[in-house]
From TrEMBL, chains A, B, C, D:
<protein>
    <submittedName>
        <fullName>Cyclase family protein</fullName>
    </submittedName>
</protein>
<dbReference type="Pfam" id="PF04199">
    <property type="entry name" value="Cyclase"/>
</dbReference>
<dbReference type="InterPro" id="IPR007325">
    <property type="entry name" value="KFase/CYL"/>
</dbReference>
<dbReference type="InterPro" id="IPR037175">
    <property type="entry name" value="KFase_sf"/>
</dbReference>
């Protein structure tokens, strides 16, 4: 990491491109605007075999669930009615004798596979599209996950298997790559990243999470991932990438090794360009299938929960090949 | 309603068809097994314009959220970090100056648009596929929503707009219809229900919910919907319907007007045949579009959250026309 | 209410007495400092018959629980283990065959009988003792309920039964009284408010709550209670009152009828003088007993839960006569 | 531990004394019935110096909170309003300018210092007083913590400092003692256990908890504590002990070293005799003071929260010396 003082994002991203205002002063879905009906058809055109894949991690996995270090703890799911009530004579009785089970959950909205609201993260005094950062207080009044969930995501997805490309089960802690690497991986896979593609970038990191003691996983927490450069940001902008989907918790190398800044791409891509981020997305099964049949492109669909005022929402994306 | 004593479901459904064992002794997804790759392709073949619709109701709507009467209360979403923390000097600080908002939620798993686990409801001592009802206690150890969420749902969906068919904004409390009515509605729409179609049945009921004082909506609670008959059950079985999706809270008339039994179709279709139920699904916008362009069939995709041991899970289905 | 513009608290309470710094720059328990060992003994000296009373309202009362209008909803208590699990074969098994029941709760910390943290409420930029208001953000880092709970409250309590004094079952909405009325009530009861007494003021309001439809109770929400005057504040200061305990949700008339200011006494007494406030305290049974035996003074003990960083905490005070 | 098969509690406690029916068929507070007004006065008579001690552990201690191994996790406290909202312009505005902070909590009712409901634990088909074990399902309909909280606890408490008595900072894992040891400790302290005394037994165990890595604390989980014998049970019965209070999580040696049975005293004393159990009670500060002034007896007061249907409830006992 740099010996120099860590610059503020305002400085690091001075002159970085912005899409604020591009889709109107009230826009809350950003680069998802690229995904018009034509893009949906382009995605649907990739359907060949009818194979499907769901990409959420389990909520309540015995190993524990992956989450960014901090207050986010595991979900708590509790039954409020089940057979035990009926055996005990305390179940709700209905004419005809039906019985049922019911439950509730306490969870962090970003504690599983999830879409970030565009306002989830920012620097300076403004979130995406110039809304004041104060609009996040108490509830996300602007650029919440709700408009994203109302719109939904459907388009041409392309899997970029960086782990396989580098001949690894999973990338190392802090290992980086950039847009050139993504293009090289695509080429090696025999496909090509096209404008408005939804990028699914696999590092193998979730496989590492589930096979590793938690202490070891979180020690010196630094994920592998994309790393900031002005060129990468320009490439996302030029390619009109609507959505970045990865199998890491935060979609980029946690700390930029050049500047020392934490999560600069969230700011350059999400806050400034409105690129939506889907995080903690399970890609191993899909990737194995792509490696087998050689088809790395598909219809990608995702619809996070419509949580009013949410900073993010859990999602179970569904891919159709 | 019948003056006779209400029969037990064991009696009412004696001789009713069953799919237990059909897909193996360990099957937990039931009629979703009908949705093989060929069915996915059949659904994808309906895509024409690239229009998309998301079908979840909002979690935390200002009017309150629809739920079956009982303990299920509204979701509680709470920020745990936001701009206010940073203005106060109590936000988590990162190199480079990024700030973020975060939140958690407390909710009933069946308190919004949702897929029932096949084991969610039963009569006698067994849930779907003959698993003991005791397996629901504490957690849904068998036929939980997890396998449904792992598989995901994709196939040819068909909207059956019963409200429009009957020239109403929404059906009345307790108003019923059956499979013959569904077929008539399809015919009136210029389409046809085909084997293995995913049925989306619109009653207009959620529109009624959101435009009506809660006291009035819940008074003498009885929803409109499909009503039990042996013929209807045979039709679902013969047609190999994988999934029943409606805009009511419980997918059928709450109390069977003939027998007086509560929710017999949950038992005849879900418990016995393994038909998956998606409830509280918002169909008004989709229906308006179908009425306009005359296309009532489409690719229906849905992937409820992968909640381990869940009796159900929230979902935001996504339709591609 | 005043036709004049409502003054800011800064203006209303200009020149109002303050105890900031009186017990040191780090003090977080305020007027509870008055309750030294001598005061505990003075309280204990009131014990005569050995009768005891617990003063919390029930958490989860069938009628619903009293709370200030706003987001605070009812508590949710859920079993996570019980006999039903054992009947189902899913209970935790221990050698020897013991079985158990267990549960969890979701609740607002100020949604039942409760002590306010001294920092719970403020005006301007500072909470009690001059701590910056920013110290409340995310967690109550200063003047939380924890130091109050660590110290506990024990001293001479005196019941002032304003409802009986005025010959009413309960005071009217918005009905007010002041320190002169408290002294008059004491005199009528044959007792006297002495320095450092813990004041338990009964309005009958909780009895009204539990016997009234919620809509009626909350309509035009304005509680009866003490009303602000500079003289009243001086009296509390001179009398060194450590703790004000009432059977209303907010311990004072909700809106000051003279100035139109909301809850000025919370600010004049709690924020400025450090008087602790206990709210939603059930006094009817105690009052009936006092009326019967003529003993209105007693040992009052209370120990709210030691919630780290809490803005308040539930409490079940215990009185010994 | 015994090489013999572990007996069932029905066998181990055959012939063990019972108080079922002693205080009526509907009694739900058991041995607390011993604590009549006379006992309260006897407790009050021990007050000498006016010193007070609160005995709850903190909810949300940085080290983590002590709880019996199993599903009980730490409490989650979250602000729902604070200064940050006001700085952001999203705080609730009131005439006069008051601002406030508010919060909520999610917690296990037995996850902190707590009183067990008498029905919390049982063997066979019945809980305390012969109520059917089925009455625990869904909610504790009988012998919940509510009647205990309604009554409250006040009486003569006596601290029995087993750790000091044995010259240790804290007892070892699995270290046992019995009623003879309690009497010996009392004698060494220069006092005497009298009928109807509330027993506060200190092992130093909570001090060990807070100073030890959690992994080490929970490894091979077995607490020190009282150990079962028929004589000990007879002694509690003869002495009419109303309440056993300890600084361990479960008030007795976790596994009886003779029989191998888990928690037999919960069954012999709580289920059969109705002795109330207060667990995870912090006694170190009180004990240090007793050692210094030589006064080991005092007025003990405790009033757990009035949680309707609760299996237990958090409590912050308050001792007056």
């Amino acid at each position: 990491m740099s010996q120099n003082p860590v610059p503020h994002l305002t400085e690091l991203l001075a002159g970085s491109p912005s899409n604020w205002g591009k889709w109107g002063a009230n826009d809350e879905v950003g680069a998802l605007n690229y995904l018009d009906a034509g893009q949906v058809l382009r995605g649907a055109a990739e359907i060949r075999s009818g194979k499907t894949f769901t990409l959420q991690v389990q909520i309540g996995h015995p190993h524990g669930d992956p989450a960014f270090p901090g207050p986010r703890g595991p979900a708590t799911r509790v039954n409020i009615m089940d057979r035990g009530n009926y055996l005990s004579g305390t179940g709700t009785v209905f004419p005809g004798g039906l019985e049922f089970a019911d439950d509730m959950i306490v969870m962090y909205l970003q504690g599983s596979s999830q879409y970030d609201a565009l306002g989830h993260l920012w620097y300076g005094d403004q979130i995406y599209n110039g809304f004041p950062a104060e609009s996040t207080s108490g509830r996300m009044a602007k650029a919440s996950v709700l408009p994203i969930a109302e719109k939904g995501i459907a388009g041409r997805g392309i899997l970029l298997d960086m782990a396989r490309h580098r001949g690894k089960e999973y990338l190392d802690k802090g290992e980086t790559f950039d847009h050139e690497d993504l293009m090289a991986a695509a080429a090696a896979q025999g496909c090509e990243i096209r404008p408005r593609d939804i990028l699914l970038v696999r590092t193998g990191w979730l496989g590492y999470f589930y096979s590793t003691p938690r202490e070891e996983f979180y020690e010196g927490f630094i994920e592998p991932g994309l790393t900031y450069s002005p060129e990468l940001v320009e490439w996302f902008q030029k390619m009109e990438i609507p959505n970045l989907v990865t199998d890491t918790i935060a979609n980029e190398v946690t700390t930029d090794p050049v500047s020392g800044v934490t999560l600069p791409l969230h700011n350059a891509l999400m806050r400034n360009l409105g690129v939506t981020f889907a995080e903690i997305i399970a890609l191993d099964a899909l990737a194995a299938d792509c490696a087998e049949d050689g088809q790395y492109t598909f219809l990608y669909t995702a619809a996070p929960l419509k949580v009013v005022d949410g900073t993010g929402a859990p999602v179970n994306p569904l891919v159709v090949k």
